[in-house]
Amino acid sequence: AEAAPAPGGGGCPPAGGGSVPVLFCFSVFARPSSVPHGAGYELLIQKFLSLYGDQIDMHRKFVVQLFAEEWSQYIDLPKGFLVSERCKLRLVPLQIQMTTLGNLTPSSTVFFCCDMQERFRPAIKYFGDIISVGQRLLQGARLLGIPVIVTEQYPKGLGSTVQEIDLTGAKLVLPKTKFSMVLPEVEAALAEIPGVRSVVLFGVETHVCIQQTALELIGRGLEVHIVADATSSRSMMDRMFALERLARTGIIVTTSEAILLQLVADKEHPKFKEIQNLIKASAPESGLLSKV
User: Fold this and answer.
1) Pairwise CA distance, residues 41 & 35, whole Å
2) Phi, psi dihedrals of residue 85, rounded to the nearest 5°
3) Hey, which residues does 150 pair with through a beta bridge?
4) Residue 221: left if φ>0, alpha if ψ -120 to 50, beta else—which one?
5) In what order do the strands lie in the sheet with 198-204?
6) Could you report the per-residue pLDDT of 11-43, keeping only the tens digit for each?
7) pLDDT tens, residue by residue, 117-139
8) Which one of 72, 93, 114 terminates a domain?
9) Where residue 141 sits, what CATH number does that domain have?
10) Of 70, 93, 116, which marks where a domain is finished?
11) Catalytic positions, written as ranges
12) Which of 69, 127, 159, 290 is 20 to 30 A (C-alpha) from 36?
């Protein structure tokens, strides 16, 4: 598990001493077990994983706390703590920080372009318009040096990304059969980008691949911005209810112009004029935003 920095103590207990009973608590669960006398932080983490591995989200950060009788409450595990007597411990997932409030900066942002493929053209409502907006977003990403990750749903049967969308410079273009874009290769690519905090997500279909991708990403502690004028479905009802559901979970539903101008943030930004020209060049009035 990716845990908070060790409060101290190694994982190797001193020789001898037998075992000590410990109550291991996580969420609503509490399971009695035992560890060797002198067990430290690393061994305790291993024990939590052996007991609760199927419930622990491996992508969260955690802190181990000890129940202190003198305070009658849990405290963070003291530095250098070693188990020497019967005790009660709990593993606490740290909450996602909400202090960003939707702020975007190029250095901490990745663009996800989801399944903008040729075979979807006749079926997806306003497909031509979301292609136009998607291309504008990818041009903006190149201007601002923002990494782009692209997926294609079963391209053998559904075709490649449409020709109108220029994937030059994309960090990753990946075929998939899973609906969510969060594949092992995508997770590995994200891990290679330092300081990623926000994902700008667009493509098709809103209620399937976009929705499942967004939910997996926020579950991993990333902030997700869905571009409403660059995502669609075969059914406008499916699209509308998906966006409403996602907004209620804390995902930010926004527009391409808002995204691009938020990323430059200042008229004096060296790329402002080029971004402004992108916005002026293509702004389809499709009616998509009236159906958010």
Assistant:
1) 11
2) -150, 170
3) 113, 173
4) left
5) 172-176, 148-153, 109-114, 198-204, 223-232, 252-254
6) 444 445 699 999 999 888 899 999 999 999 989
7) 999 999 999 999 999 999 999 99
8) 93
9) 3.40.50.850
10) 93
11) 115, 176, 209
12) 69
